[in-house]
Design brief:
By secondary structure, the chain is mainly beta. The protein folds into 5 domains: 28 residues, no CATH class; 84 residues, Sandwich (Immunoglobulin-like), CATH 2.60.40; 83 residues, Immunoglobulin-like (Sandwich); 183 residues, Cathepsin D, subunit A, domain 1 (Beta Barrel), CATH 2.40.70; 170 residues, no CATH class. It contains 5 helices and 47 strands. The strands form 9 sheets. A 7-stranded mixed sheet has the order 41-40-37-38-43-39-42, with no helix packed on it. Strands 22-23-31-24-29-28 form a 6-stranded mixed barrel. Strands 2-10-9-6 form a 4-stranded mixed sheet, with no helix packed on it.
């Protein structure tokens, strides 16, 4: 019994000793008499944080860190906020008093919030390639401490590591001098970023057609992102020829179509159909349509041999009002349409194929005689033909080469259409991936988890798709068919997969605010797009900075058997 009692007494003494604080003398705990904050009266940019430390001075003359024991507050959270551990964040330019409170004692200091500072730079486009003699507008975007991003192209210092390869001026305009690579750097203070510019040898040869996007080969009333080539048309079997500019280069269609108003120097031969003349109605995704007779012409592409080929002569008045009543909203003239013609160099040799060869109710071809037109079967040789497929050598496809351009765009861009794939020294593919296409010229694009039937179409002047509801992109208030993200541009990515399940490859792209871009002095943009409910249309912006190979159906190249896209 005694030992138990002693045990109890010992425990009690231990507990009393633990609570006394002065070793059995019965004294009191020292009290906080003042609080000092460090750093004293600091400043920090918007978006940057500052850790404050609270040091308490006690009644016994000692000092201790009481940062985690005080209550922190800001006199004006519109300028600066502070959390429970003393970490302050600059919110907006201004001043706020930072206060630390312990019971009835408090300490404070003044925090001055200054404008946001530059934290990083990105140079766009990333790792571009352009032919020698061409220019490329680079852009520098600065990210700031407040999380915003701004165009600082004219505020940075530009430099090129190899000026013999390419130079760059104070506004970020690079000029390609000779083949090679150089590092282009944008610098602001201690912050810099760079991109590698590759300069290639400009394509030359009989199988090369110059492309100008909103340039010298286009008409003055051209719309944005319009790729133009020049085609020579001759009276069949003669040297009576006419060279016609302002022809849209279109990888999304097949065959040559030219307005009858511009065919002023040649006479073409109608393609017979039963007892009448063959005519065609072609409808496009934008709601427009071309109507007119099918006629034989000798066509010259670049300096290739002339080929005899059925083309469509666009004539909205052919056989009176039949076209307007049957075909739809017709292109009536070059000035109204914004082009003189269309050169379709897509994946197929004919524009309709076996469907029109086997059925008269195809909704496309008609026999016109007397005062009426009726549906017609059309043998493959009489259908409007992709003239590339009829060339003697360079007939297995084309390569579209366009340089990279900055997100703010360019007044015009020059490139090349190269006929043939692997048939000449100037069209040997290198470093590209082949994506097989189906008989609708489609493969698969997966964007934000949603699969789309997709195609690559130089005739579309933007990137057109319908974003999933989970990741919407706002449409413009005025130009409602186009995208207007804010802030812009937004960085996006998608995965392309061949029509039969392989291969797959990621595509990174940007989407800018159409209404902001369209009112600039530029005409060519890599980052415009809009809504398209029926698939994913990789329009002209996809081509900038790429060599896009179009492999014709049924032909073979070192990239495989067509139809395929490769880039």
């Amino acid at each position: 019994m005694k030992s138990s009692k002693n045990f109890f007494i010992i425990l009690t003494l231990v507990l009393l000793t633990g609570c006394g604080g002065s070793g059995g003398g019965g004294g009191s705990t020292p009290a906080v008499v003042s609080i000092a904050l460090t750093p004293v009266n600091p400043s920090l940019p918007v978006g940057i944080t500052q850790q404050f430390v609270a040091t308490g001075t006690f009644s016994d003359g000692t000092s201790h860190d009481i940062t985690t024991q005080v209550i922190w507050s800001s006199s004006n959270t519109s300028f600066a906020s502070i959390n429970s551990t003393g970490l302050a964040t600059g919110v907006a330019v201004g001043t706020a008093t930072i206060i630390a409170t312990f019971g009835t004692i408090s300490g404070n200091t003044i925090l001055t919030v200054t404008p946001a500072i530059l934290t990083s730079i990105s140079v766009i486009p990333a790792n571009p390639s352009i032919p020698a003699g061409n220019t490329l507008q680079l852009a520098a975007f600065g990210r700031y401490s407040d999380g915003t991003s701004h165009d600082i192209t004219t505020q940075v210092t530009w430099s090129s590591s190899k000026t013999l390869v390419a130079t760059v001026n104070s506004g970020g305009l690079a000029t390609a001098v000779t083949a090679g690579t150089t590092t282009i750097t944008a610098t602001s203070g201690s912050i810099s970023a760079d991109t590698t510019l590759t300069v290639t040898i400009a394509a030359t040869g009989n199988n090369v057609l110059p492309i100008t996007v909103n340039g010298s080969l286009c008409s003055s009333n051209s719309y944005l992102n319009k790729p133009c080539v020049s085609v020579t048309v001759c009276t069949p079997g003669t040297t009576t020829c006419q060279t016609i500019n302002d022809i849209i280069l279109d990888t999304g269609s097949y065959g040559l179509r030219i307005f009858q108003q511009v065919l002023t120097s040649v006479s073409l031969t109608p393609v017979p159909s039963s007892s009448g003349s063959l005519a065609e109605c072609v409808q496009f995704a934008d709601g427009s349509a071309d109507w007119g007779p099918v006629q034989i012409a000798d066509v010259i592409l670049g300096n290739e041999p002339a080929v005899s080929v059925p083309i469509q002569v666009i004539d909205s008045n052919f056989f009176g009002t039949f076209g307007s009543s049957t075909c739809g909203f017709l292109d009536a003239s070059p000035s109204a349409a914004g082009f003189n013609g269309i050169l379709g160099v897509g994946l197929f040799a004919q524009d309709c194929g076996s469907g029109c060869a086997n059925s008269a109710n195809n909704g496309r071809y008609y026999t016109c005689s007397g005062s009426s037109c009726t549906g017609a079967k059309v043998p493959l040789p009489n259908q409007v033909q992709n003239p590339v497929a009829l060339l003697p050598l360079d007939n297995n496809g084309v390569i579209v080469q366009l340089p990279s351009i900055g997100l703010d765009g360019s007044p015009s861009v020059n490139g090349s259409l190269i006929l043939g794939i692997g048939t000449q020294p100037n069209n040997v593919p290198s470093g590209v991936t082949t994506f097989p296409a189906n008989q609708s010229a489609e493969f698969t694009t997966t964007f934000n988890g949603a699969p789309y039937n997709s195609f690559i179409d130089s005739g579309s002047n933007g990137l057109f798709f319908s974003p999933p509801a989970s990741s919407p992109i706002p449409n413009c208030p005025t130009f409602s068919a186009w995208f207007c993200p804010s802030p812009d541009p937004v960085d996006l990515s998608a995965t392309n997969t061949g029509a039969f399940g392989s291969p797959s490859g990621q595509v990174s792209f940007q989407m800018g605010n159409f209404e902001s871009l369209v009112f600039s002095f530029n005409n060519v943009f890599p980052d415009i797009g809009g809504s398209f409910p029926s698939g994913f249309d990789w329009g002209l912006p996809f081509f900038f900075g790429r060599n896009v190979h179009v492999g014709l159906d049924g032909t073979v190249s070192i990239l495989g058997r067509g139809p395929y896209w490769a880039y």
